[in-house]
Amino acid sequence: MADILHVSPHQVLNSNHELSMGFDWSVNPYRGCSHGCHYCYARDTHRYLNLDIGRDFSKKLFVKDHFSDVLKKNLRHVPLNDVITLGTATDPYQPLESKYRVTRSILEILIETGHAISITTKSPLILRDLDLLSVLGQRKQLQVHISLISLDAQVIKILEPGAPNANRRIKTMAELLHHGVPTAWFLAPILPFITDDDETLESIFSQARSLNVRWLMASVGHFTPSVYHYFFQTMAQTPLRSRLKQFAEVYHKPGYKIDPAYRIKLRRRLAQFYLRYGIASSTESPQGFESIRQTEFSFVTTESQCSSPDPMSIQA
Ligand code: SF4
């Protein structure tokens, strides 16, 4: 069971203009995330609350009260063509949302104000809001990303212990697409020597093709030093421990930046998959998303060569 705590922020919209993160504003209805993905870079945000980045991140969850009122005020100064991203530091459709409905209230407000939005999630709970998503989709003011990095049930259980399983996410994508909601497969983070093998990539691209997913956005895992250490120590206690030696070799200390040679090789391998399956590596720009930048691995693969938020910044 998680502890649910309440905060009353005066500001709920975070500007990312100076960070060049691929979107202009981010909005997060909650702090912490019960999906508890061990690689989640947002774990670091719990340190600012004097909480630990391990268990506390998924067991001490914060609900932001009076969210709608504050968001309405904050949005007054935001141009309509700025990109607002939902789900950069928490999954907006984690189980808390079924009770508190803060994410739903954000969609209602954005429909009212006319702002465009991108949403990243791992949860089928997003289907509850199909009525609102359809409105935003028809206006071309929406892009949904469903995050899924492996179809292997055991690997997912280890890496993302509290998240919905792969089948549920695939069904969610199918349902969203069936209802005409612009939906991309979010393959991030790719974890070197853990989820980057040909078999894993092949199964994902092949599944995406059979779902008729047009866009698949890929990005390699990025870690802060503290999340890297947490991740490494946690994985060392799991059946994935045998892959850690090679994993560690491509993250260079002290900053744990990914090895450039590894990145280039992965990029080339991914290019083959994009070509073979005829899937685009980035999304079309919804109306008002003029400033969306390129993904980490963007290729011209189909008729649609466009751009999207930087996936390394929008894990869900
Ligand atoms: S990666 Fe997304 S779903 Fe997983 S814990 Fe982080 S915010 Fe939650």
TrEMBL record:
SMART domains xref list: Elp3
What Pfam families does the entry give? Radical_SAM
| Domain Radical SAM core: from-to ranges | 19-269
Q: Give this protein's Gene Ontology molecular function annotations.
A: catalytic activity; iron-sulfur cluster binding; metal ion binding
What UniProt keywords apply to this chain's record, in alphabetical order? Answer: Iron, Iron-sulfur, Metal-binding
What's the name of the protein?
Radical SAM protein
What organism is recorded for this protein? Sulfobacillus benefaciens
